[in-house]
Structures are given as C-alpha cells and as structure tokens.
Write a structure and sequence with these properties.
CATH class of the largest domain: Alpha Beta
Helix content: 10-25%
Low-confidence stretches: 1-27
Mean pLDDT: 91
Strand content: 15-25%
CATH superfamily of the largest domain: Peptidoglycan recognition protein-like
Largest sheet: 6 strands, mixed
Number of helices: 13
Distance between the termini: 53 Å
Structural class: alpha+beta
C-alpha cells in the first residue's frame, strides 16, 4: 500500500528539516569529496543529499568508467544504454538445462534480444544541463557528479528533496520511495569509505533525519517490509504433448528442507526478463531484483521448485534469485540492488534456517554439474565482479577472521578494490577486460605467476589448462569460500582444489585469505581415491516401484588420500520425482545414504559420508 500524498508531503517536510539541521561536511583534501561539495554548491543541492544518492547508486566508485548492470556510469550512475549495449538472457546460452533433471527432457529456451527500457538514458539530459558531452560525463568523475547534481536540482523544482531523490531512481510509486528511504537512512547514519580508485569520501551522520516507511507489500508476496515487492506470477500450466511449465509445485519445507539460496544475474533487462518469467514455455526462478532501485518481483512461491540452477537436486532444495545485470559484459552491481537483495536473503535465511555462509548462499557459478557431460555447459553468473564481501557485510554476517593464525583452513577474502585479475572476454573473446576490483583469486599450478593455471578436466576435457576468460571458473576461488591449506612456500599458499594443489600469492601485508575454523573431509584409511558427485541422490533401494531410479554418477574428478576439503555439513540423500503436471504424482524419495557437501573446486560437490573422515582443521 502506498503512502497517501499528504503523508508523503509531511514526510518530505520532516526530511528537509532534518537536512537543514545536519552539520556541514568537514573540509577534505580528497578530490572526489571536493567534487561533491563543489557540485552541490553550484546547483543548490544539499551536499548530503548528493552524497547519499551517489552512495546508493555506486558507493561513490568510478568503476573505471565502465557501465553498471543497468547501463549506469560513474559515481552518479548516469545511464547511457546506447553505449552499454544489450544482450540476451543467460538461460539462452550454452547447453545447461535449467531444470537439470535426467528424468525429463532437457529445456533449452530461446528468448530473443533484450530490449533496454527508454528510462535508461539520463546522461543526455545531464550533459545538456552542464554543457558537456555524454562521453565526458561517462568518463570524467567530476563532470559525472556535476551532471547528477544538475538532474537532482531539476527534479527538485516544485518538489521536496525527498521527491527529487525518488525521481532520480528512475522509478515510480513504492519502489521510488523505497530508494529514497534508503538514501535518507544513509544520510541519517552516515558512512565513510575508500573508493575503488583510492578516494576518501565521507558522509557525516545527520541523526535528526526522519526516514518514512512505505505502506507495506502485497499479501501474496514473501518479502520483508523493508523492501518493495510486487507479484509477477510464473505460470504453472499444461502444454501440448503431455508437457507443462514453468516450475513444479511442492510443499517445502515440509516435504524437503531448503538448504541453499542461489544468486543469479539475468543477462537481460527488467521488462524482458519479467516477460520471460511469465512465459509458460520458459524456465523459472523465485525472484528478480531490479538494478536501479532494488524493486523485487516474486514469481514462484518459495514452497515450490523453480527451474533455475541447472541441477535438479539443488533446484529442489534452493531458492533462486535473479539480479538484473550482465556478468558477461563485466559490469558492476548497484548498491540499491545489493541492499535490497541482502534484505531479501536475510529474511529467507531466517525463515528457512539457512546458514549465512558461502556454502549455502551460493552463486549460480558455484552449482555443480550433475554428471560429467553437463559440467561444461553450467553457467557462471553472477561472475567475478559480484562483491561477496560487501554483500555479507550487508547481511550482518562478515566473512572470515574467526580462525587462529596458521590454521590449515582458510577463507578467501581479498581486498575487492585492489584485487584486479587480468580477465579477458568481457566484450569480445580474448580481449582484456577493463581493470576492476574482483572477488576472485586465480590459482596457479606452481608457486609462480608464470606457471599455467590449473586443469579442470570437466570444463576442459582435452586436458588443457584453464584460462583467464571471465567465464572460465576452472582455476579460481571466490570470496567467502573455504579451502584446506596444502602447502606454504614463502609468500605463496597452496590449497586443495579439484584434486590438485592450487597456488596463489598471499604475502604479509596483503593477505587474500583469513584463517578459518571448521571441519574438513579426507578419505577414510585404506581408500586411495573416492568419487565426487554433483548431487546427493538416494540408493536404488529407496525408490518406490512407480519412480524411476536415478543413477548415482560420479563426476570426472578424484579426491585422493592425503587431500582435505572444507565440509559444509552432512546431508541426507533425496530425489524429488516431479515429471508430470499433476501434483498427486510428485514424490520425495529419501534414502539411507548420507553425503557431505564440500568445497571441491569453484563449485560445491558431494561425497558419500561412508567414504570420508570428518576431522577438525588445525
């Protein structure tokens, strides 16, 4: 329910009063801080409003002049979709079957090009207002800030500053107000940080600022009150030839425990993606989150199983959340989307008892292939530019730092801004990506930058080493993941990874890992190697006569004696048989077999509990 207009105006008056009482920003020698102060004075915008809007868009970062997931450039997120370009949804790419179930024919949907919304073109008006070119506003941080200030001043004409901030979001209604609420909450609490290009910027707190609350969400969505959600239902519909789409009815968590939340990006723009979610012949996911303002659309009830992750076992035990964006183009994600997503994930984690760690809050790129033939086609979103460390800070569950120095278990946690692997292929195959902060740490086969990357025989079946292509996850680890230390030589550390030692630089004063505590698995005595699986399916004897037995097929890797891998806990074996439209035919098969989820490579994996010892890491 929306705030009445009179209430919104009263709230705006209160906010303006709070701003007037706020202390002036302290003088600073840092250029970006001075740029904000100068632009605010030039266009008559309260400096804390300008800083607050910019923080919710970009966290004051420049991002090397590259676009966000919604075509925004620079600290003020001025949008230019002509320059950013378009793409198709990632579900159309590769060979991954989003449902990921051998018992049903593979789904390979086609969606066509994504059409950008006309609202993603604010840079032209900003350029006109400040008398500069659109290119200048995209590439010059100071001029970008001037352009954003000019737009805010224009939106303020005849309105309150709260209204101007809401309009800056590019949205309307509750979504715009929620964006403005987040901005004003940031103004109230204050924030300071070092940007991705080394600028010290701060927003002093204004504790007297009043932050209104919007009227709540529709009764038919599962969302916290602190975000704006809408219902855009995915159809459960019969199709010709005894087919149906685009998800499966279930009764979770009564029938099956929900263990994971899977973070995706759309590789498409909001309107197109929502059209696809409503296509009965397409695939499905539970939520989509919009980039510019953090609006959430729910498509599938969390009790039901969506077809999103390419692995039926994971689908049956997860919630899938798509984020408007383009990992394939090396773009960055807005703070508004991070915050909205973190609030939703925190709500779902509390509701279903899902641990707030990187073994259970995973990316699509962490979902394993089901059998050897599906590994190569698995997707890799949200990509190496998703800031997992910041995301978990927003979740209130900071990553790492709990172990003792010298621990044999470590949490990957590089400095996101300073960690800039030389990836290729963001724009075209083989071309270098723009230098940008990343959550990914690249592994080498020897303690030397000149040594080849590791081999992933599931991805590169010809036995060649992995590459630096942005989509190649065969020799990289991700922030928050935990691995067992295999060896240390000077500034180099090796971890166990896909049955090999993976080396990375970890010098004093620039550590990329933190010591961790927890359990690791290792093969039981007498076992030279043990198989690794992409799903935790039951033994054949567990299946009733009317359900097809699913093969327990190992992946093409080996876990050898002496190697250790981080444990995420023991899980029971399950298979959700759901291959017809009629819910009465659906059966949850639960076996006696137990598995242990491990961090085996970039992706999670499973080993049989009977094959391993669980031991504390020291």
């Amino acid at each position: 329910m929306s705030l009445p207009r009179s209430a919104a105006l009263l709230a705006a008056v209160a906010l303006t009063t709070g701003l007037a009482a706020a202390p002036a920003q302290a003088a600073t020698t840092d250029q970006r801080q001075r740029d904000f102060t100068a632009a605010a004075a030039e266009f008559g915008v309260p400096v804390n409003v300008l800083l607050g809007v910019s923080y919710l868009e970009s966290r004051w970062d420049f991002n090397a002049g590259t676009p966000s997931t919604s075509a925004g450039y620079g600290p003020m997120h001025l949008t230019d979709v002509r320059e950013a370009g378009v793409a198709t949804t990632h579900h159309d790419e590769g060979t991954e079957d989003p449902r990921g179930d051998d018992a049903r024919p593979a789904l390979h949907p086609k969606a066509g090009p994504a059409t950008p919304p006309p609202g993603l073109q604010t840079v032209d008006e900003a350029a006109r207002l400040v008398g500069r070119t659109a290119e200048t506003l995209r590439t010059d941080p100071a001029e970008n800030i001037r352009g954003g200030a000019a737009l805010l001043a224009k939106y303020h004409a005849g309105n309150t500053w709260y209204d101007a901030v809401a309009k800056y979001s590019g949205s309307t209604g509750d979504a715009a107000r929620t964006f403005a609420d987040e901005v004003y909450d940031t103004i109230k609490t204050g924030v300071a940080r070092t940007t991705d290009d080394g600028q010290q910027v701060s927003l002093s707190p204004s504790p007297g600022t009043t932050v209104p609350q919007h009227g709540g969400n529709p009764a038919n969505v599962e969302c916290p009150r602190t975000v704006t959600c809408e219902s855009v239902p995915a159809p459960y519909q019969e199709l010709p030839d005894d087919d149906y789409g685009n998800h499966d009815l279930a009764n979770r968590p009564v029938s099956q425990k929900i263990d994971h939340i899977v973070i995706h990006d759309t590789e498409g723009y909001w309107d197109n993606v929502l059209d696809l979610a409503q296509d009965p012949t397409y695939v499905s996911w539970h939520y989509t989150i919009r980039s510019n303002d953090g609006l959430i659309a729910q498509h599938v009830p969390t009790k039901d199983v969506a077809w999103h992750a390419g692995n039926w076992y994971v689908n049956a035990k997860s919630v899938g959340i798509e984020h408007e964006g383009f990992a394939a183009k090396g773009t960055w994600y807005t703070e508004a989307m991070y915050r909205s997503s973190a609030k939703l994930v925190g709500y779902l984690a509390r509701k279903y008892g899902i641990p707030l760690d990187r073994a259970h809050i995973i990316g699509h790129d962490n979902v394993p292939g089901t059998i050897p033939s599906t590994i190569k086609g698995m997707h890799w979103d949200p990509g190496p530019y998703w800031d997992w460390s910041h995301y978990f800070d927003l979740l209130g569950a900071p990553l790492g730092g709990f172990g003792l120095p010298g621990s044999s278990l470590v949490t990957i946690d590089p400095d996101f801004a300073k960690n800039q692997p030389a990836f290729t292929g963001c724009d075209s195959p083989g071309t270098p990506c723009a230098p940008r902060g990343s959550e990914a740490v690249v592994l080498h086969s020897e303690p030397s930058e000149a040594s080849p990357l590791l081999k992933d025989i599931g991805l590169h079946t010809d036995g060649t080493p992995s590459t630096m292509d942005v989509s190649d996850v065969g020799s990289r680890v991700a922030t928050g993941q935990r691995y067992a230390v295999a060896e240390v030589r000077g500034d180099w550390t090796a971890i166990w990874y896909l049955g090999q030692k993976g080396w990375f630089q970890n010098p004093r004063g620039a550590r990329v890992v933190k010591p961790a505590i927890g359990l690791v698995v290792t093969p039981k005595p007498g076992l030279a190697t043990i198989p690794v699986y992409g799903r935790a399916y039951p033994e054949p004897e567990a299946y009733p006569a009317n359900v097809t037995v699913q093969a327990i097929t190992p992946l093409p890797y080996t876990l050898s004696a002496g190697q250790k891998y981080s444990s995420a806990g023991t899980v029971g074996s399950e298979y959700y048989s759901a291959t017809t439209f009629d819910l009465a035919d659906h059966v949850v098969v639960k076996g006696k077999l137990k598995y242990v989820q491990i961090q085996f490579g970039h992706r999670i994996a499973f080993v049989k509990a009977d094959d391993v010892r669980l031991v504390p890491a020291f």
